[in-house]
Write the structure tokens for this entry.
Amino acid sequence: MNIAILSGKGGTGKTTVSTNLSKILGISYVDCDVEEPNGFLFMKPSITTQETVFTQFPVIDPESCTLCGACAKVCQFHALAKAGREIVVFDKLCHNCGACSLVCGSKALTYQKRPIGIVEHGLAESILCSRGVLNVGEPMAVPVIRELLNGLSDKDHLIDCPPGTSCNVVNSLKKADAAVLVTEPSEFGLHDLKMAVELVTLFHIPYGIIINKDDSMENRIKDYCKKEGIPLLGVIPYSREAAMLYSKGNMLCESESYRKNLEEISFQIKEVFSW
């Protein structure tokens, strides 16, 4: 079972939920938020392996190039441009689709690799932890996410997705069997939650919702779940204690009251997803 933890917006507590549930359930933690992978700050694994992730980009042989400009015309990402007597390559815009080499009649294009990030694996006690880290200044996270997910074992995993509903999230969901949507009881939280619901519905992924920073009152998120018939897996109470634990890099499950709360959420996840 691969359970994706996602949210329609940043700052809802997605990483808080995923790291704590990984500890409670005793299953592998995978941080796909490669642009800001902060889950290891809480899991504190000992790194055992590290691999460099590469992507390819076109290199043009000026001796063979006829300056026809076909490569620039076919590139949908504007990674190639005809500028005077040369073809300019913007390597960070290249999506490595191969279209430019297909239309190059003079065979002037070859490809070279360049590093764009790393994938790390480690152990937090007995829990396997994995994450991708995108290099600073790189605009495309998807190749690192793909490499990270391709290395998943056949065990159970909690996948900590990037925030929002972008291409990064879509690629993080490709191996998900179920999804947990984390939100907060605010108008912005509800607005972006609906986009996340639309995304997992599009991929036919069963899902449920967790409300973080809950004040124990009836709110717009609870009303939305009732109206749409969406399973409410549980709530995480809003408290000063949670903020203090988080600020020190500690886990909520280290608190007795929060541990009981998270155990109840874990039970609901197993029930709803028949796990």
The chain has a mean pLDDT of 95. The radius of gyration is 22 Å. The first strand starts at residue 2 and ends at 6. Residues 52 and 200 are 30 Å apart (CA to CA).
